[in-house]
Structures are given as C-alpha cells and as structure tokens.
C-alpha cells in the first residue's frame, strides 16, 4: 500500500522540517487514537505561539496591514511585538517575584 503525501508534507520533507500541522477529522472519518495523541502533543507548543498572536490581534488590532510595502509592514509587526511584550511585562515580573 503506497502512502499518499499531501503537498505540505512533500514541502516539509524537502526542507527537512518536522510536521507540526494539526490533524483534522473528515466527514464520516474520525481521527485515530494516534492522530489525537499527536494533536495533544503539538497543541502544547502551538498554544504558546497562538496565544501570543491572539493577544496581539485582540489588544493592538494586529493581523491587518495598515501600510504598503514590506519594510513598513515589518516595522508595524515589530512595534506590535514590542507593545505586546511591554503590555505583558508587569504580570510576568510580578509572577517571577519571590514572596
């Protein structure tokens, strides 16, 4: 039985990257036990990354291009990341303080 690889899997193999793409159930075809385990395993890492982007989108309206040009958009993304870190820093410092 030959394995059928999607285009994303082929691209990942060419670039020698690990597959951390969540598995999704299809109609009338639920996820297998191992696919559920895989999603749980990579979900722990994805949560940290996705919550950062979610916070930027929620607090600073990120995810929308306000400028034309790569350089200007890069600057916008840097500023959003800087603001995100400043916004979160008091809570992070307080949580790391020893009582």
Question: Would you mind describing this structure in some detail?
Answer:
This protein has 99 residues and is mainly alpha-helical. It has a domain at 63-99. It contains three helices and no strands. The protein has helices at residues 7-14, 33-60, 70-96. Helix 2 crosses helix 3 (70-96). The model has no long low-confidence stretch (mean pLDDT 87).
Keywords:
99 residues, mainly alpha, 3 helices
Q: How would you summarize what this structure contains?
A:
The protein has 99 residues and is mainly alpha-helical. The chain has 3 helices and no strands. The longest helix is centred in the middle third of the chain and has 28 residues.
Topology diagram in text:
Elements: H1 7-14, H2 33-60, H3 70-96
Helix pairs in contact: 2-3
Global morphology: extended
Distance between the termini: 61 Å
Largest β sheet strand count, sense and barrel closure: none
Q: Could you list the spans in which at least 5 consecutive residues all have pLDDT below 50?
A: none
Query: How many beta strands in the DSSP annotation?
Result: 0
Derived from helix and strand composition plus strand pairing, the structural class reads: mainly alpha
Mean pLDDT: 87
Succession of helices and strands? HHH
Total helices: the number is 3
Using only C-alpha atoms, the radius of gyration works out to 19 Å
- Helix fraction bin: 55-70%
